[in-house]
Amino acid sequence: MTWSLIILCGIITFLMRFIPLSGIISRELSPSTKNSFKYIPLAVLTPIIVNDLSIVENNNLFLIENYKLYAGIIAIIVAFITNNILATISLGMASYLLMSNFINI
Amino acid sequence: MKKLKIFKQGILEELPLQLGVFPFGVIYGVMAIESGLTPMQAFLMSSIIFGGASQIAFVQLISNTTPFGVIVTTVSAINSRHLLYSISMMEFLKNLSLKWRVILGYLLTDEAYAISIRRFINQPNTSFLHFHLLGTGITLFLSWQISTLTGVLLGGDLPQFLDLQFIIPLTFIAIIIPMIRSISTFLVVISSAFCGLIFKNLDISFWIIISGFIGVLVGIVSNKLDKKR
Q1: Number of domains into which chain A is organized
Q2: Do B72 and A5 touch (CB under 8 A)?
Q3: Rounded mean pLDDT of chain B?
Q4: Is B119 at the interface with chain A, CB within 8 A?
Q5: What proportion of chain B, given as a percentage, has pLDDT over 90?
């Protein structure tokens, strides 16, 4: 049973990734529809980010001593200034590790 | 050769993210064994489903003897965002052969998509762009398999990784911030962030894709209003 469950989940997951590429959806889309696709990375990755920054924990806003949030804000500033992935990751991670390991309250 | 060059660029750009992906895979592997799956089931799930967050949800649910229907719905809900990724890649990949589209569809997960869509949007007219996605996808696939296997073999207590998984949202920040170039893109980010916070806490299982849809709608509407002005 577990095997069939894993395989079923695998098939559904694959179909969700593949169906738009399969050509079933009309290939000739209007320019305005195509234009709206550019919002997808922003609209999907942003909720994942805010969730990972633990801004809400157990239905409470978690803003004070939330080092992930602070490091996230630092990363946003670094990304804005440098437009560089490695700089953003390293400064964001370094500031998170520094805050979470050396601020003892 | 240009194809090889683009493929290698995909691999290189995907590599730093693996520092965050690897611990995630090990944790999944350990949890899968704890949940009572056989090592073979735990390991092969990583290539059959190939979706980190959904696999962790799967093993958590199965260890609580959740009804199968709930597990299938949860996994589908978590992975439904890939439908949107695929839609946004459609334009770039539509002229490829079926074989290519099957392979790239299979490899289309968060971390590969995030790195490659950046390249696709910045340089849409480069030829052989699909080799970039192949590079990011294969890198992610291999590191996911190796890290899962490590977790499966390791078993026991959940290892501590200094929160290295935090690298994943940091990378996503690095990718989306430069994409904010107009009022409409800014509003997409604000609205999808806000919806994400609300829907996640209302325990709506399709929270990411619903927030994504609302974000895209906000983008379309604000873009129209902006043009009218």
Answers
A1: 1
A2: yes
A3: 93
A4: no
A5: 81
